[in-house]
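Changelog-adjacent note: as of this version, every example in the card shows the full chain rather than a window. The one below runs 415 residues end to end.
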Amino acid sequence: MHGTAMFAPLSADEIATVDAPAVQPADKLPIVPVPADAPAPETYRHPKHGAPTKVWRYTDALDQLMFTVARFDFLDGDGKPAKDILPLTFCDIGKGRRAWRAKGIADPRPLYRLPDIHGRADAMLIIAEGEKSADAAAILLPDMVATTPPHGAKSPHKADWSPVAGRTVIIATDNDEAGQQFGDKVCELARAAGAVAVLHLPPDRLGSWVWKDGEKHLRDGIIPKGWDIADALDDGWTAQTVAALKSDPAFLPPYRDAEERETLRRVEAGEPEELTRWPFRIVANGVEKRIERMDKETGTVTVEWKWFCSLLEVGAETRSADGEEWGRLLRITDRDRRVKEWAMPMSMLAGDGTAYRERLLSLGVEIAPSRFAKEALHEYISTARPDQKARCVSRIGWQSRFYIGLNENFGGING
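Full-length structure tokens:
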């Protein structure tokens, strides 16, 4: 059933959208870097929203313009303020014509303010979610270099993180679930790229306070959902008032890595003790397992992370409407950076696992040729506890109050 199953998500937010491989239409071929004689990106006009209200420039290390990110402000159907943020790239649009178009460039994409990152090699890097927040971070923490990956929380994995190698990184997270997920992903990407330390600027460090008439006051009520470091400027924070806090060692705590976060989550969920310390982490080039070795003479314990397969994420637990046919929704990224999903029935973990490994290999997963890798892969899939759940169905059409199509689902399912 699982090999050909369709999926009905329990809610619109529970199953993340998979990025499709970048395919450039023939009439929109990006020209990178942007030629010197190209018109300013501000001349672009959105077919619905008109001129951009703000444009952020992304350049290479030599400060050559690569592409831009533009913000468009407008009123929605109810007359309420809304925004759209799109990448703008200078393109060959065919028949000898060139123009700015709403299109991204191929990944890996440069980080924002890349010349500053290279030019201030001794400065710490503060990574915010989005260009507006990065600009605010540059004002509030001028001794650091502020940056962000293109498209904020949507696709940090598509950025080139190599410039963070050997640097201390601080991640400023927004006050919502998406912001936490962004920070978690950036933490793993920065560590994999060689950052020497990854620290955290949680939203409560600044968001718990507001400044009025030169005095700091505890905020009335909770920090607003979605609060980010750009909102700190509106709350009256300045570079001087932020600097006064930085002497406190607790101001920038270490960012919890994937293992620590997963262990904490499992403890809070009441998992058995033998499952709480999950010895796996996802890095840029795949999945690793923690190996601990003790020196018999000194008692010293050393930790090694050992790679066993390419990028393979356990995205959700699957099961039928009857609560049977349990499985795992596996998300595979192959060497062509194409993302694929496979609903693997848990029953395939019975026996020696040859059948499910054959399927994974055919989908582009690389598995190290060792007994350790086979056992680690088996344990990784078996003990994963994804937050998301999906219902698995064997045919398209109406399933209770939800219509399952080949590419889209309609309606809603409870439970």
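Structural remarks: The chain has ten helices and 22 strands.
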